[in-house]
Amino acid sequence: MSKIELQGVEKSYGSHEVLKGFDLSVKEGEIFGLLGPNGVGKTTLFQTVIGLLREDDGTVKIEGEEHTGGKEVRSKIGYLPSDISFYGGMSARENLEYFAQLAGTEPDFDELLELVGLEEDADRNPKDFSTGMKKRLGIAQSLIKDPEIIIYDEPTTGLDPEGKRRFRQHAEKINKEKDKTIIISSHITTEISPLCDRFGIMKDGEIVACGTKAELSKETDNDLGILIEAEDTDKLVQVVEDSSLDVEVLVDDTEVEVVTEDDIRSELFRILLENDVDVKTFEIEEETLENAYMKLTGEA
């Protein structure tokens, strides 16, 4: 089921076209990554979806219902903008209480603060928070209405590596434990690649490709790299090389990369299990998505 569906959405500022017949479908329960260079219209798209802007043409549907800016539909969406701010005269908890009052809701503030790891900082002033802590408070704020859909606009900008890791950790927790559909935008593939189920590649106000890492790799004629670690690296290599799969095997210490033109993950994993290979990790190489993104956006 599509949680969000956009069909032919257009939006212009004067003579400048920002969204050009934009089509997109986001599935219920997935974490969807929207990738595109800065200035291609990601923020305008999000503001159109949440009702801050009205499309010039096309339709935006939330759970099959056309979005006309009504309060009922807006209550289903939480939004964390790229630039967030809080009231400096209030504590973190008081900020959440204030936003909840505006939204007409009464969430469990202790639960929200604990969910984002700020329970010990509830009485501190957000102006004294690090960028990462402000982002986490913003995540809590986006959950105040208990929305079914959460949109994060460039959420890892300005975060250090630990802050990025913690953001991905919290987003995944919200997706799994709270059963939320999440859309995250970025212009850097590695920022959101480990987190997302599918990706949309955006260029010049349009979606130019959409799919999983493997699907995008195939669409752009890139080889697919599968990274595997096992308890016994030698046995892993031997099993793969003895199989009938048309692959190249590269070994780097304890990590093995299987390079293939096709998505053979299911067959490869079955072969490893049948041969009692104790697999520790099995994932697509990050460069697979990066290469597809560079080709599709013309940045290669």
From TrEMBL:
SUPFAM superfamilies with a match to the protein in the record: P-loop containing nucleoside triphosphate hydrolases (SSF52540)
Family to which the UniProt record says this protein belongs: Belongs to the ABC transporter superfamily.
Keywords: ATP-binding, Nucleotide-binding, Transport
Organism: Candidatus Nanohalobium constans
Official protein name in the record: ABC-2 type transport system ATP-binding protein
Gene Ontology MF annotations: ATP binding; ATP hydrolysis activity
Domain ABC transporter: 4-229
InterPro entries: AAA+_ATPase, ABC_transporter-like_ATP-bd, P-loop_NTPase
Domain of life of the organism encoding this protein: Archaea
